[in-house]
Description:
The protein is mostly helical. It has one domain (7-206, 220-422): Up-down Bundle (Growth Hormone, Chain: A), CATH 1.20.1250. Helix content is 79%, strand content 0%. It has helices spanning 11-34, 36-43, 47-72, 77-95, 101-131, 136-164, 175-203, 209-214, 223-230, 233-251, 255-261, 267-294, 297-316, 325-345, 349-352, 360-371, 374-388, 392-422. It is globular.
Amino acid sequence: MQQQTTKKQPLYVIILLILAAEAVFILPFVLQRIFRTTFLESFSITDTQIGSCFAAYGTVALISYLFGGPLADKFKPNILMSVALILTAFGGFYLATYPSLSNLYILYGFWGFTTIFLFWAAMIKATRIWGGKNKQGIAFGFLDGGRGLVAALFGSAGVLIFSLFINKNIELTSIEERRIAFKEVIYYTSIAVMIIGFIVFFFLRFNESEKLGSENKAKLLTIDNFKIVMKFKAVWLLMIIILCAYYGYKMTDLFSKYAEEVMGYNKIEAAKVGTYLLYMRPVIGVTIGLLADRTKASLWIVIGFLLMTITSLIFYLGITDDTTTLLFILSIGSMALGVYSARVLYFATLEEAKIPLAVTGTAVGFISIVGYTPDIFAGLLMGYFLDANEGAIGLQHAFGVMSLFTLAGLIASFLFYRHSKSNIN
């Protein structure tokens, strides 16, 4: 099995993986990240209520991680990923009807199934196969960096579409006018996601993919693989690392809100802040991936958490406001560097931890059960502080909580780094 990963995989495969890996999350996450206040206004919901939607998503995702991992060890990635994209797009068409809050909960739960049960572990395993034994850093660097570029392009297209349907100064528009414009953004995004789903089905192919997709079928979907995975100390540390890093990533949802409510930007300018931030992801992803392959992925995760901890404390202390624009730009830049460095590399450490390729899907599912629980509670926690304290105070409290998570992640990543240096499992 391991020998197959040494055979060079086609370049177009990683390009398709990048495109699919971000497209599937555009509708559930990226649109509301870029259009945070417009999203809330259009659906007439609060920060806490959108947090409840993410909790519904995360609850379904929690179960999906457990069963979706072994599924990825049994079926070919192109089948699972294409079905996930197409079903997610159908959810987007429903989102454009502006459903009630109770139906939004159902929709986000549905997305938790499509994006995680069908898609997540299959995408991670496919990326690991593409990277082989010696290029895990660059494989996951390309993946996450490329995802940033795809998200940025979707974001830019969304802002453009939104502005095209706003025929006067944004500050003079009514909520209804903004709802109509935002509906067009949702429609066009959904169409794009569906098209990508069909492309993935027909063109995502690996060298010797038949063997990669079918070996050891008799041992799949049993407790044996979970027993193998649980023996690795690195797996337990990765759970904590991903939980803390993912919470930090969820906090990037608030940058456009911060730009609008604290820095005084208008809605389109604030949306552009979120979009510009996404353009940093490809640069950071590729650079960090290359560095990780020349050193150790776990080292750069430690550095990422250090940057996240420092910058979250800056926002918590309220040092940045509308008089310190340069500091605001530098701070979100540093935060992005830390967040994206950790995101790029945490699954690249699977090779460093010497986890067998044959149980990659199971390992990813098991780690993700804990690692991605912020999908359940992060939105609710942020929403609580934002709704209880309007403006800068609520945002400061939210970043204060983030600093606690990133500090815990810093400790766990340092322990993982020491563990991997000792080469003991």
